[in-house]
# Entry
Amino acid sequence: MPLDVTEADSISGAVAQIRQLASHVDLLVNNAGVAPEVMSVAPPSREALRDTFATNAEGTIFFTEALLELLADKGQVVFITTKMGTPQNAGPNGTAYRVSKAAINMYAAVLAQRVADRHIRVTPIHPGWVQTRLGGDQAPMTPEQAAEAIYQGITAPLASGQFWDGETNSVLA
# Structure
């Protein structure tokens, strides 16, 4: 089904379609992301910052919030994110991307506490540096390896809110 997380009507429409298809959702994997200036060390333009936050943070948060009512108790919410959005992995490039993913990483931590009474597990996952349009050909992980890393993070017996590092197949310390 079509979904543009930057558009409120698109989110509402997708949630309505999901409601028609299922009585509940067991697993939500949030994979929205853009990075118009990820390799640039220059300050982001206002447009790049606004567009990056609209997709990576705001849209992802509002889509997740819209689906929480349908999320099954003991379900799971996954955020495909990056450890580039953690203070210990700060770098000079990709300001808008890094800061937007830091916002999602914090949202995951907040959400884990908010849904704890429903035993919903929240898992932010760094899939690794992947050979995609964003990661480039020099990235060490294939999309298949990243998919396996994501699967490992989804199925690992993690506490809600723990950040899974797909490069090391371990909890990010």
Q: What stands out?
A: Residues 115 and 121 are 8 Å apart (CA to CA). The mean pLDDT is 95. The chain has one domain: 25-171.
